[in-house]
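Lab notes, practical 5.
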Amino acid sequence: MGDLRSLPVPDGLEGERADAALSRLFGLSRGRAAEVIAAGDMLLDGREAAKSDRLHAGAWLEVTLPPPPAAPAPVPEAVPGMGILYEDDDIVVVDKPIGVAAHPTTGWTGPTILGGLLGAGHTIATSGAAERQGIVHRLDANTTGAMVVAKSEIAYSRLKRAFKERRIDKRYQALVQGHPDPFRGTVDAPIDRHPAGDGRFAVVAGGKPSVTHYDTAEAFRAASLLDIDLETGRTHQIRVHMSAIRHPIVGDLAYGADPTLAARLGMTHQWLHAARLGFEHPTRGEWVQFESPYPDDLARALEIVSDES
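Output from the prediction step:
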């Protein structure tokens, strides 16, 4: 059964197309929003809406949202290149390779960290949804680096709370095009789904508050290596914010990177690495910190851009 939502159209959606507004309001893809409207499940002041209808602020909106598609259960599997930085009875800190998702999702058919851990015989906490058991934070499939997974139930609950309360030290490194000005700064800009409804995210008025701090570690002729500290953890946050200040991450073609530079450096994905992860151990209480070395492709690209400078 669908989930019925009733509310007045917000002022910020005045004049928006019905499908775009539905996408923004409820985080649906543009295609999914169009399906809801085509099924007659979006009413404006009591009448069925068409996807091209323009909304008026204050009109009464009734939407029956479809239940989210069930994600597949994790399947134990071998994940080549997945390393273990640390493990005890409560946590396992993974060195995540390229092309691996954190957990199964609808539409993802590639390997997952969860499947890799189960396939290697690791015990994982069973808290949370079945397809996300033990997962307390995520990295994009094409982002590498340090990621912690909970093994015990108490570790799961305490780490989830620590991430929610921003008591985690997450440090990334990104190779971005050009030279940010100033060399050290903060990007404070709200993020939500891209209006195109194509899976990307964007800086959007009324989006979720998002804050990224960056500092230039090294400047090259064509690019800069940045140290990045996240205050918030939105999907694609670093990629969106770097693109928004016109210094997209090298190799991140989805967010405006130069394909010629990416090809010259041998990058087929964004040059973004979760280099350091620190937090209070969930049962021992002491501060623990883990570092992930660059994978070969990132190290090679960094060497090339450095030699060209």
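Observations recorded by the TA: The mean pLDDT is 92. The longest strand covers residues 169-177.
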